[in-house]
């Protein structure tokens, strides 16, 4: 798609219409990951990170702590 946002003129849409458009776009994305191309370097990076996590599980941070940090509760 080579159309720019200005060519689509979404500025003329109301906020509700824009939110609906976002939903329609999101729903149009295939649920199957096989339908989306994944670069090989992404797969390699995922494998690298999984191997690092498996090698040092003691470095993991529990989700509850991550959530507190993100919310500024620490």
SSE sequence, one letter per element: HHHH
What would the principal axes of the Cα set say about the shape?
A: flat
Strand elements, count: 0
Measure the end-to-end span. 45 Å
Please, what is the average pLDDT?
Answer: 88
Please state the CA-atom Rg, rounded to the nearest Å: 20 Å
Give the helix/strand class: mainly alpha
Residue windows where pLDDT falls under 50 for at least 5 positions = none
Number of domains: 1
- Kindly state the percentage of residues in helix: 55-70%
Estimate the strand proportion: under 5%
- Characterize the largest beta sheet: strand count, sense, and whether it forms a barrel: none
Count of helix runs: 4
Could you describe the 3D structure shown?
The radius of gyration is 20 Å and the shape is flat. The protein has one domain. It has 74 residues and is mostly helical. It contains 4 helices and no strands.
